[in-house]
Design goal:
Blueprint: E1 2-3, E2 8-13, H1 34-47, E3 52-60, E4 75-79, E5 82-87, H2 104-116, E6 120-121, E7 124-128, H3 129-143, E8 147-150, H4 155-164, H5 169-176, H6 178-191, E9 194-197, H7 200-205, E10 218-220, H8 241-247, E11 257-261, H9 270-279, H10 281-286, E12 288-292, H11 304-319, E13 326-327, H12 336-346, E14 350-353, H13 362-369, E15 374-377, H14 381-389, E16 392-395, H15 400-412, H16 414-431, H17 434-450, E17 470-474, H18 487-496, E18 501-506, H19 511-520, E19 528-531, E20 536-539, E21 544-545, H20 547-553, H21 559-566, E22 572-574, E23 585-589, H22 597-606, E24 611-616, E25 620-625, H23 630-641, E26 648-652, H24 658-661, E27 666-669, E28 687-689, H25 694-704
Parallel strand pairs: 1-6, 2-3, 2-7, 3-5, 7-8, 8-9, 9-10, 11-12, 11-14, 12-13, 14-15, 15-16, 17-18, 17-26, 18-19, 26-27, 27-28
Antiparallel strand pairs: 4-5, 19-20, 20-21, 22-23, 23-25, 24-25
Helix pairs in contact: 1-17, 2-3, 3-6, 9-11, 9-15, 13-16
Length: 716
């Protein structure tokens, strides 16, 4: 068996899920989704290229009465030179991917037997997901052929999401075999000649968590879009049922449409978009706003996150009296989506994605294919898409004026609108069709096959523990910020030690307010973001909310009664709506006429209200659930992520940080004008009182505790 000369023989491996060439059962279960569609479309598109002789898509053969007999066939042609090849893998019944690990060695040996039966060995082996990566590393060594890998979903990121949803670390390990998966990913990254990703952000923020992160081996090749579904308007879109459903909300339906389409998720930032529209009379004059936020019957029956977002959408529309200007239909079909894009394009409108973070941005590509200009968040995938397509503008998703001004600019300049409309369609055809994806893919692998592009490997080592074993937590305003000149050094220190240490921010600010400061000061996205005085916890680059923490702190929380009881108390005045949240009630405190804090506590207890009262900066008083605080949120994080408290450095600068600093954490009080509120902690052994302010004080404490090495209180 030898390597063929001339045209390429490509071998793709995707072990799990139900893979066939027709009627894909997408969504049948967690294993049969986007990856399944991707590998089938990639195989077909590669087979159409003139430089490709043959493509085999290897997957697992399944014999199970609960699934179609299609999956038991040894081979299935996708075209004249492309085939799905199904290989036996011990237990032949359909199993979830988490239960396949013990069978992968047998699967690998059987794939090798199949390849030995062929006249030629593949020029390239391309694995998909961690299980295929495990198989591919063995085969690449045995056959001495290049290994290309696409992760699709990564174990370290998956673990973050599971912890955020309340799944315990031991349950994650038992159910998902997470350590096996992450070890397989590390090994694959260590030997892969190239790693294919969808965006640059994926390279930096997801693969960057791995010990064998080698960015020089990674290439961005965005996935393709089906142009048979997404294309420019034909003129009859306004006669469709979904158009009538949208129009019935609007007084002047012929105005240009500002279209937002996403699920009802806080991170999609739809409420900020409505506020930007509501604040701009000029924008309301020129355009309607159309919000497609999933399907709903009774909002009260939806999950809590969706219920909160949809309720806030309706309240905000009412607040700005936007009736007749905003459309928010209750239902739409999946087949309506492309019609909605075309309807907006036909109106001379614009598609807007104001999400706080956007890893890829498939909807932006779909909108562009339908000739609709785009406005999108300056984060992640949209940066690459707009750079490639030249069909819109990037915005700060937290700057309402910028959002409104940018939308106006697109809608009012008809000449520019037309140019962006044409550019978008051209850009999608050049960069985001399956044909262009396959061509760009071939440009990546051809130099590896021809050995014209050297594979340079870094000298890397695995960490002693599979997961991080320490963390730095800091308040935002009084501990971290204040001296911009030191922030680049602080940020570099975090990045240099990101594989062993997490970074967390604990603040009294709301999520949107905290993110504005983080973006303004170019701080790295924290691994954990504790907001609203410890009442909300978000994880990672996608700000996944810890819903288990929400359930935990809901105990004995009766916000309406708190407001009623404190309504007539002298010296207390409710802060603005933006400072309030579901689990935080915020007041201004006038010490000249208000009772002292102990009296307020006693008063609340007398009314059968068990809550925490937080007083800070001499003028702010917050009421939060009794189980919520910065310190308790930090300890919840430590427990969930299996980080010892004595391996956590907590930096504080005001009274609101006290319970974060007390206890077994390593703590530092940075020098600022508010740290006298914490002067009672100065004699505690595990509290370091630095003379340096803000981030410089945290860096000083890192050195004092030898934090990234011995991590202990020095013998002084």
């Amino acid at each position: 068996m030898e390597r063929g000369k001339g045209k390429l023989y490509l071998l793709l491996i995707s072990v799990h899920g139900l893979i066939r060439g027709h009627d894909l059962e997408l969504g049948r279960d967690a294993d049969t989704g986007g990856q399944t569609k991707y590998v089938v479309e990639l195989a077909r598109a590669l087979g159409d290229l003139p430089d490709v002789e043959k493509v085999d898509l290897i997957t697992r053969r399944i014999i199970d009465e609960n699934v179609s007999n299609d999956y038991s066939q040894y081979s299935e042609p996708l075209s004249d030179n492309v085939n799905i090849i199904r290989i036996d893998c011990a237990d032949q019944v359909y199993l979830p991917k988490e239960q396949l690990w013990d069978h992968l060695d047998i699967f690998s040996d059987n794939v090798l037997n199949y390849l030995h039966s062929n006249e030629f060995i593949p020029h390239v082996l391309h694995t998909h997901y961690a299980d295929a990566g495990y198989v591919g590393t063995r085969l690449a060594h045995q056959l001495s052929i290049p290994l290309i890998h696409t992760g699709h979903s990564l174990g370290r990121s998956k673990r973050q999401r599971l912890l955020a949803s309340g799944v315990k670390k031991d349950d994650i390990e038992n159910r998902y075999n997470m350590s096996l998966r992450i070890n397989a990913e590390e090994t694959t990254l260590g030997i892969a000649d190239r790693v294919i990703t969808s965006t640059n952000q994926e390279i930096e923020e997801q693969y960057g968590l791995y010990d064998y992160y080698q960015p020089q081996q990674m290439r961005v090749v965005p996935p393709g879009t089906d142009l048979s579904q997404f294309f420019p308007p034909g003129g009859k879109e306004s006669q469709t049922d979904i158009a009538k459903e949208i129009y019935k909300f609007l007084s002047e339906p012929k105005k240009p449409m500002i279209l937002a389409l996403s699920r009802p998720d806080q991170r999609k930032n739809i409420v900020t978009l409505i506020e930007a529209y509501g604040e701009s009379e000029e924008l309301q004059k020129y355009a309607n706003l159309v919000i497609i936020a999933g399907n709903r019957d009774d909002i009260r029956d939806m999950d809590r996150g969706a219920e909160e977002v949809l309720t806030e959408i309706l309240i905000t529309i009412d607040l700005y009296n936007l009736y007749g200007k905003v459309s928010y239909p209750k239902h739409h079909l999946s087949t309506d989506v492309s019609i909605i894009y075309r309807l907006a394009a036909l109106s001379g409108g614009v598609f807007v994605n104001p999400a706080l973070t956007e890893p890829f941005g498939l909807t932006l590509i779909e909108a562009a294919a339908c000739s609709l200009p785009i406005v999108a968040t300056e984060d992640g995938g949209p940066i690459d898409i707009i750079n490639n397509c030249k069909n819109g503008y990037l915005i700060d998703p937290l700057d309402q004026k910028m959002i409104a001004d940018t939308l106006l600019k697109v809608i009012k300049d008809k000449k520019k609108w037309k140019a962006m409309s044409v550019n978008g369609m051209k850009g999608v055809k050049e960069f985001y069709t399956w044909h262009s994806h396959a061509e760009n893919y071939l440009k990546v692998i051809k130099p590896i096959v021809d050995k014209t592009e050297p594979v340079v490997r870094m000298e890397l080592q695995r960490r002693s523990r599979l997961y991080r074993n320490r963390a730095i937590f800091s308040d935002l305003d009084q501990s971290l910020l204040g001296d911009p000149s030191i922030l680049p050094e602080f940020t570099k220190t975090l990045k240099d030690n990101a594989r062993c240490s997490s970074f967390g921010i604990a603040t009294g600010r709301r999520l949107d307010s905290a993110l504005k400061l983080i973006k303004r000061h170019k701080l790295p996205i924290p691994d954990a973001l504790v907001t609203s005085l410890g009442t909300e916890i978000y994880y990672g680059q996608y700000f996944t909310r810890d819903t288990a923490w929400d359930d935990h702190i809901d105990y004995l929380w009766r916000p309406n009664k708190v407001r009623t009881v404190l309504e007539d108390m002298p010296g207390l005045r409710l802060q603005a709506k933006i400072e309030q949240s579901r689990y935080k009630i915020s007041y201004y405190y006038d010490s000249t006429i208000a009772p002292d804090i102990d009296e307020i506590n006693q008063f609340l207890l007398q009314h059968d209200l068990t809550v925490s009262v937080v007083f800070s900066f001499g003028q702010f008083l917050d009421i939060v659930p009794v189980r919520a605080s910065k310190g308790l949120a930090l300890r919840w994080y430590a427990e969930q992520w299996d980080i010892p408290l004595d391996h956590i450095l907590a930096a504080g600068g005001s009274g609101a940080d006290e319970d974060m600093i007390r206890g077994n954490t390593l703590a530092v009080l940075v020098a600022n004008r508010h740290n006298e509120e914490l002067s009672n902690l100065i004699d505690l052994e595990r509290v370091y009182y630095t003379k340096k302010p803000y981030a410089a004080g945290i860096l000083d404490a890192i050195e004092y505790y030898d934090f990234f090495r011995t991590c202990k209180v020095p013998d002084v």
